[in-house]
Amino acid sequence: MGSMKKYSIGIDLGGTKILTGLVDITxxxxxxHIKKKTKKEKGAENIVRKMLSSIQELFEETKVxxxxxxxxxxxxxxxxxxxNGIILSAPNxxxxxxxxxxxxxxxxxxxxxxxxxxxxxxxGEMKFGAGKGVDDLVCVFVGTGVGSCIxxxxxxxxxxxxxxxxxxxxxxxxxxxxxxxGAHGCLEAYASRSAIEKRIEGALKKxxxxxxxxxLEEGKSITSSMIRxxxxxxxxxxxxxxxxxxxxxxxxxxxxxxxxNPKLIILGGGLIEAVDYFYKKTIxxxxxxxxxxPATKIEFRKTALGxxxxxxxxxxxx
Length: 318
Ligand SMILES: [Zn+2]
Known about the structure:
Layout: E1 7-13, E2 17-24, E3 29-37, H1 43-62, E4 69-76, E5 79-81, E6 86-90, E7 95-98, H2 100-108, E8 112-116, H3 117-128, E9 137-142, E10 146-152, E11 155-156, H4 188-191, H5 193-205, H6 224-232, H7 236-260, E12 264-268, H8 270-274, H9 276-289, H10 292-297, E13 299-302, H11 309-315
Parallel strand pairs: 1-4, 4-8, 9-12, 12-13
Antiparallel strand pairs: 1-2, 2-3, 5-6, 6-7, 9-10, 10-11
Zinc ion (ZN) binds near residues 179, 183, 186 and 188.
């Protein structure tokens, strides 16, 4: 055994921001964090530069020494090669074949681990959030897409190619809407924030009325908080499409409950966090749609670590 290190650095590399945190691994607390936007400047060079400067800043601001850091963990939105520490494809960041472990290890001489964002967020929630003390659970995140991660006997289920848990691509309509993955009728095309956004935009274009128009800005997309505000004002159009999304998501969750029989489903992501109406409706319907026996044991919770679940989970990657 080497000497115990008190801290790890967790980095959540998302489509719109890089969140870097210094995590006290004795208790899971984020001691200090830095957020950098990735909206305009993407591409491997920009992403690497921002990650390096975030870590530098972290050292300067906290005065923590390099030898107090056990590891750097990265949670990346996209396809990754865990073993070799490579981000294979992250279209949201315009990054392909990025050998991120090699770059960070040679710069800081600290071991670097890589995981996908959903897996890291699940690990965070499992250790210190809504899943604390539960061994069989499924974490589902609803935002731009619908992602999930399955935990069985306290371990993350990865599958033969490390891609298990793609709830977003459960097919809910054989002749349904096209999905970004190339298939038709995937859950993600019905139950994500982007799916709701598309439906609302389509209806507005056809001249339908909605109070959401008051919040819209030219060239900007519909956010979860705009959806919340419209529902609070009992807007008929927005409520209709959110109901529709809840209808599909609850069907997807019922399938997961029947197939995996977990004790707990943790729901998170922008849409769930912002729109409580959507959360409540989804879980109520999921319980009605799944088989009666697993329905007796299933419990639902919202994520508890918010924006930091990925950073915290990444800090514990090994
Ligand atoms: Zn799909």
